[in-house]
Structure formats: C-alpha cells, structure tokens
Amino acid sequence: MTTRIYLSKAEVTEVEEKFVLGALRSGWIAPLGPDVDAFEAEVAEYVGVQGALALSSGTAALHLALLEVGAGPGRVVLVPTMTFAATANAVVYTGAEPVFVDSQAVDGNVDPQLLVQAVDLLRAQGADIAAVVMVDLFGRCADYPEILPAMQERGIPVISDAAESLGAAIGGHRAGSFGRAAALSFNGNKIMTTSGGGMLLSDDLDLIARCRYLSTQARQPVVHYEHTEIGYNYRLSNILAALGRGQLSRLDCMIERRRAIRERYVEALGHLPGVRFLGRTASGRSDHADNCWLTTLVLDPRLVSATPTMIIEALAAQNIEARPLWKPMHLQPVFLHARAYSNSVSIRLFQTGLSLPSGSGLSDDDVDQVLLAVEACLKVG
Ligand SMILES: *Cc1c(COP(=O)(O)O)cnc(C)c1O
User: Fold this and answer.
1) Residue located nearest, by CA, to atom 6 of ligand 1
2) How far is CA 362 from CA 3, 177, 256, in A?
3) Pairing verdict, β 295-299 and 353-356
4) Exposure check for the chain: N or C terminus, fewer CB within 10 A?
5) Contact 79, 281 (CB under 8 A)
6) Is the CB–ligand 1 distance for residue 58 below 6 Å?
7) Cβ pair 160, 178 in contact under 8 A
C-alpha cells in the first residue's frame, strides 16, 4: 500500500520540534507569552508592515479588520466570488451584506474593471459600501497596483485576505502589506502552519491596538475585569506561536520547494494542447511573484476530453488528492440570494480547473507518481 499523497500537507521538522519544546519548557503555556510577541515581530518584519496581531484563525483576523473599517448592518462589503467561504462568512458575522464580484481568467483573482464597475453601480443605487476585500487566490497577489488607487479615489478601504499568499509579492511589496489591514492564515494546509491560527497585519498601530483589545474579550486595563463593549476570544496561544516561529524560519525554503514542484509540473504538462497553468502568462509582470501555494491546471474542454472530475477520481483511485478550485460563493446555496457581479469566468474556472498536490513535503517520486497519473488521463482520447 503506497502512502497517500495529499494536496498540501503540513511539513514539520526538528526545527519546529525545538521551538515547541522550548515554549513548553519555558512555562509560558497559558495562553500568551514571549513566543507570541516574537512571532508577531518576525512576521511583521518579513512582510514589511508596522504592526501584527497573532490570532486563533485567519477568519478571526478578517472579522476584526472588517469591524475596524465599520462593516455592520445596513452596509455592504464587496468580496471576490472565487474564494474560500471564510472571506464571505466574516462579512456576515459583522451584519454587513457581502456582494460578490467575479474573476479574471488569467489567475482567477478578482477582475479589477468589474470590481470598479460594481462599486460605482452599487453607489449609484445608494448602497453604503464599508469596504472591499481582496483575495490573493492560491498564493498569487491580486492586482493591487490597479485596484488600490481606484478605491482610494473613491474613499473605500481595502482589506486584503492574504490567507493563501504569505511570501508572494507584487510591485516590490509583499502579500499582507496591502490595504488598510491584511489577514494571514496558518491553518493546517496553508503555506506555513501553526496547526490553526492567523494574523492581522497593518501599518496602522491604533487599529492593531484596538483589535488586540477586542480579541481578548474587550477587557479594560483594570484589575477588576471591566467591559464597556462586546469582545472576542481570538488570541493565538504561546505554544502555537512557537510552532509558527519554527515554520517561519523555514518559509523561504518551503516556498522554493513548492516552486520547484510547480516547475516540474509545467515542464511535463505545460506543452500539452488545451492545458494551461493558472496564473502563468507570457506577458505577466516580472515583479508579480507567487508563493506557489497550490499549482492549478485549467483544461480547455475543446482540446482535452478528460474533465477535472474524471482526473480527480482517477487520482483518488491511486491515493492521490487533487481538488477543484473554490466553488464560487454566488453559486453556494447559503449565498444564493446575495447580489453578484458575474462575468461567468469563475464558473468556467470551477468547471475546468483542478489543483494538484503542491506541498513542500512531496518527494520527487511523489511528483513523478502524480505526473504519471495525470498524463494517463490527458492522453486518453
Ligand atoms: C484559509 C482561508 C481563510 C481562513 O483562514 P482560517 O485560518 O482557516 O480561518 C480565509 N480566506 C482564504 C482565502 C483562505 O484560503
């Protein structure tokens, strides 16, 4: 029996063991401590922002960021439809209404023109827009150089959902440094992990301080537990922050490994008719570097008879995990009645795309095995 090949499995080494053991032995168990402070400082420096707040999840980071820009009942927040549900759920937690915007074909990120159109149309209809959330899909930065000035002109704050994109960059700035605030995720299958966790990043230290207070049950700085507003229990534990520090120390190596795996996929499959890799373009900006979190194929059904579903099933039969892109939010039963600005690109990507095993822990033999299985599917017909 061969071992299962996962889509994006967490990879931990003795480096992480040392950090976690150190935290356990330091006595800083419950719940904050020096590893939390150090983890925040190290991530802030890596990304290039002034402030960081370690939290229990990326979703918590999004929730707090949205509260800080005033998202709430009676207001709307624009969200890319091609994303994980957490982005839209966080909007709903605040009481605001998510309005979905479709993708551009090249990388699945939000279509900048459609986004600007949607903002202007909503405003013309009298909508009160609290914020726009951008998502860096599968580790590739959204088009911030185009979108940030357009939103600034309109006085709309941008929140960056960088849950998938730590280590990526565009225009010389790293993912997590764009907009009023950004959210990172350290969930189990992300580019690096704390087993579960997230971080809020911002250059606005007042925003970070307020979110720090909200994330610790909005406890006033007095001894007798005084509360003047509703807070949350959203902090990351010191033990998990230690794991995060170990992962961060190896992040660039893990990204390099993911990049090497992608290059092998591209080399083997990129020349096949009807096969393209999401986010790879001949005309792309050279300063748009993705972190290779997931490598995603898009198949042209006119040229390739195998469908993503067929390939995913064939791989599953060989104990290899592959999966479709995120199912667009405006097609999800829970958001069926939400407003959406669609150009049907996201639906097409959902129907014709699949992500291949991309984790940094994959061996060359694992990648060979995936390639053999995918090639067998693509050659049929
Ligand atoms: C993983 C993810 C999140 C949520 O992060 P958690 O840490 O799991 O809460 C949010 N947005 C996107 C785009 C994600 O991929």
Assistant:
1) 58
2) 11, 30, 12
3) antiparallel
4) N
5) no
6) yes
7) yes
Place of tokens 């071992």: 3
Closest atom of ligand 1 to CA, residue 136? 13
State which amino acid sits at residue 10.
Answer: A
Q: Read out DSSP for 246-271?
A: HHHHTHHHHHHHHHHHHHHHHHHHTT
Tell me if 51 CB under 6 Å of ligand 1.
no
Q: Is 56 in the pocket of ligand 1 (CB under 6 A)?
A: no
Cβ atoms of 16 and 254 closer than 8 Å: no
Q: Please state the pTM of the whole predicted model.
A: 0.97
pLDDT for res 2? 65
* 182 pocket-lining for ligand 1 (C-beta < 6 Å): no
Q: Extract the residue ranges of the chain whose pLDDT is less than 50.
A: none
Pocket probe mutation, ligand 1, options 89, 187, 358, max atoms within 8 Å of Cβ: 187
Summarised one tens digit per residue, pLDDT across range 199-227 is: 999 999 999 999 999 999 999 988 889 99
Give the whole-angstrom CA distance, residue 163 versus residue 183: 6
What's the first-to-final CA gap in the chain, in angstroms? 30
Domains of the chain: 14-250 (3.40.640.10), 252-380 (3.90.1150.10)
Does the annotation mark 18 as catalytic?
Answer: no
Tell me, in angstroms, the distance from the centre of ligand 1 to residue 85's CA. Answer: 8
The region, left, alpha or beta by phi > 0 then psi within -120 to 50, assigned to residue 260 is alpha
Question: Are 323 and 297 a contacting pair, CB within 8 Å?
Answer: no
Give 20-60 pLDDT, tens digit per residue: 999 999 988 877 889 999 999 999 999 999 999 999 999 99
Q: Which amino acid is at 332?
A: Q
Q: What percent of the chain has pLDDT over 90?
A: 92
Conformational region of residue 276, where left means phi above 0, alpha means psi within -120 to 50, and beta covers everything else = beta
Confirm or reject: Cβ of 161 under 6 Å from ligand 1.
yes
CA of 198 to the centre of ligand 1 (A): 8
**Rounded to the nearest 10 degrees, what angle do helices 34-47 and 238-249 cross at?**
40
- The whole-angstrom separation of Cα 158 and Cα 79 is 10
State the burial class of residue 379 (Cβ atoms within 10 Å of its Cβ: 0-12, 13-18, 19+).
Answer: exposed
